[in-house]
Request: fold
Amino acid sequence: MKRFSMLMFMMSTVCGIAFAGLAAAETLELGIPLPLTGAQAKFGEMEMRSYQIAMEEINAKGGIKGKTVSLYFEDGQGKPEISRAIAEKLIDVKKQPIIFGDYSSSCSKAIAAVANERKVPYLVVTGADDAITQQNYEYVFRMNPSNAYYAAGLGSFLSQVVKPTSIAILYESSDFGTSGADEMEKYGEKIGMKVVVKEKYEKGAVDFKPILTKVKAQKPDVIYMVSYVMDASLLMKQIKELRIEAKLFAGGAAGFAIPEFINNAKDAAEFVVTATLWSVQVKYPGAKEFAEKYKAKFGDYPSYHGAEAYSALYIIKDAIERAKSMSPADLQAAMKATKMMTAFGPIQFENKEGYQNQNFMETLVLQVINGKHETIWPESTASAKYVYPIPKWRDRK
Amino acid sequence: MESFLQTLIAGLLLGGLYALIGIGMTLIMGVMKIINLAHGELMMVGMYIAFWMFTLFGIDPYLSVFIASPILFFLGIFIQKFLINPVLKVDSILPENQVILTVGIGMVLANLATIFFKSDYRATPVSYATSAWYLSDYWENAPIDLSLSVPWTVSFVIAVAITIALWFFLSKTDSGKSIRATAQDLDSALLMGVNVKLMRVVTFGLGSALVGAAGCLFIPIYYLFPSMGGQFTLIAFVITILGGLGSTNGAIFGGLILGIFESMTATYVGMGWAPVGRFLIFVAALIFLPGGMASLLKKKRIGK
Amino acid sequence: MKKYLPLIVLAFLAVLPLVGLSSYMLHMVILVIMWSAVGMAWNLLAGYCGQVSFGHAAYFGVGAYTSGILYYQLKLSPWWGIPISIVVVTGFSFLLGLIVLRLRGPFFALATLAMGEMMRVSAENLNWLTGGNIGILIQERTWIDKTYYYYIILAIATATFLVVKYLMQSKIGYYFVAIREDQDAAESLGIDTTWYKTIALCISGALTGIAGAFYTNYMGYIDPHVVFALHDISIVTIMIVMVGGVATLLGPFVGAIIMVFLAELVRSIPGLGVAHQTFFGILLILIIIFLPNGIVGDFQKIKRLFKVGGAYK
Reply:
């Protein structure tokens, strides 16, 4: 019996703690699932900081509907079943009428399914997998473009400026890498670009030289890489080392668009272009202020992930203020009617091209020029003129 | 031809570094028969030491070998003496219950790194990070162009030097011989008056110091973040089995074979399959060569 | 009392959803039960038969993918995965056993670990079958109400429990323990050790596979990194049993409570932030140092500690 009573005791403690701590009246408590430990923690951290900056700004201006916003972060560890647990907890225990956040596609999928079943609106902030907004989920909204659109800007840059005839695609073995690579392959077929190598690699690999040697032998015009954080800089370092000459080195967002890329790859990063959703130089209102604030506080510029998180809170604020009540159904209607400008860009949730509640936006191309990410495409938002053709490795320095 | 030679070079350099990671584990596994799942995390600690030495004092990561190894040596001794020994002492149904212990230690180390150093990706931007020697620079009309990365080569050479020093220690000094004796036959070693308890502590310290040194050699060519340990623990396992439990010579060959095999798979089969190749030779080694490379080496020497 | 304990636990669990648990709590309890089922399966092979597998993610993942592929390729209900995965995973385990069961001790452990990782990479690369890294998404889960899932996994776990219990009371069970204690001695007594190890592996694998198939149905989404995870599946399984009690019937259940429920609890302690892992890691270290046979296995020790006036020996 003792064993059993101990069990009961444990269970009741667990329940007790979980049920305790309902939100106080005059503050609006919002919980956000994010990966704060584990391999994705870097992005979780960046998003957490960005949410906090947005929270401080909103509170300084009187909060949401007069209530002070208080955010707390739940560590999903990048595991879908924990993310799901967090979503269930927010909906069920905390009675939060709207959910937003998390980083990876797999965690976003887990939350999206729960949110839609329970009819609570969920704003996907960074999960890029196409399928998330292709399932007729009425309650799921996504502010970042789906993976298929990430490289749209880069595609037009390629076809208008570089006009390559062959391309090599290297990508990490994840859903993000795979769909990015598949989209580029499809696009290549469309503009008559031959895919000479299409290879995936295990995230976190140490040595890319074998695969790069193979690429070198094929002499492609463009080398397109969809890589996670630091793989990007290792790839470029080793490309430089092997002196692989291509007309253009292109990255598909993520690892190529963050400041660490330049910090680590140094001169090997020079002239590399990358698709991205956002950059510090975009002319959207508040973008520059946010970027500078982030830099002043944490020492480096944020990537598009930070801008998305920062803007997400404004989208939520906007929806709550427009909604007739705090009920999930009214919030859903308000989310659906969203039409606003954020630091991340214009946000509007549309049903088109097989997507539901999806935000469509123009994607940008950055190039590393003199050790800085400059926006080079589309030319209307460019902060610098692109450098093309790029010098050969041998002639640099 | 160019591809093949370049791949071979890459594989050799990678293998040399792998070997150093593996040696630490092979020593620990050989002497204590425990599966240390915190091995990669110890490497991470070594890398953070090198990173901070570089960032704060501008000490070159290669010099940090002399700082990180002693620190890791004492960390290893601490772990062995106060955490692993108490668990090894008790008689439990499955001796593998130490797994929880090393997983727990790894968790704590990785998490402490996250708390203190944030989960940012770090690298030491040394000036020679992307420099390389090119065949065409020395031989103008070379039919093929090969390159040799400076940091990779330096890391490889230091790894070889450390390995030779270790071999010397194990085969020529008394303590080294005692460690080997403990690894080969615990009971006999006890009978011969070897202080097995002390040897275990020293071995764990030594294994940790070696993987700490490997961390210092890795940071100029790789990068660093708190949860990076796992994949290196796996690599260390593969090398340990490939080389034969407790055999340092075996680990060297195991590392080299693994490096070359992985590189060749990446070039000629596809890099996505490279990890499968890694585990395939791992399992093949387990089945067809249970003594690892060490047993082959031995056979040759004795001439059976 | 001791004899009825499993019954009491079962009865308690059977009425648990009736008290009106929140959906969040129910999710946690479902995870606890699912993990105890996996733990019991692992316990059969490792705890009783002594073959410590580091690769149970292989069976879990194959089970999960059986369910997923039936849906993805053949458009069948993923629930078919539960019966079919028994066949598939048993066959798979048998083949795997031909390779890994020739090895012993740490070699066996590492070989199974390698097998798990190989399965993950294969699932990533066999795009035509598994959908590769994109994973498999079940468009619509069968029920919104979790009670159904709860009773299904409870039934699976109960069945697993009964299989393990009756197996261990039979002759085969004694052979298993004999193999664990001394394989050579068992062999010399005329026990066909390879055959009995294969039986243990196949049953253990199949039971794990069923839990995997359930996971697909319950979560509605799988990808290779999730269901073939080395740390999050294989190692967690080991920890669940080791913490709860190796070679005990209720150990996996207690372990799952700690590894899932307590971990969630520690994770939600306000103010602890990311340090929750350090906290939990230290907890694990303490458990294993003071209770090397797990909580159920060393229950006498705990009892002694708490006994009023009783001297600690």
Chain B touches chain C through 46 residues (CB under 8 Å). Chain B has one domain: 2-125+140-230. The mean pLDDT of chain B is 86. The two ends of chain B are 37 Å apart (CA to CA).
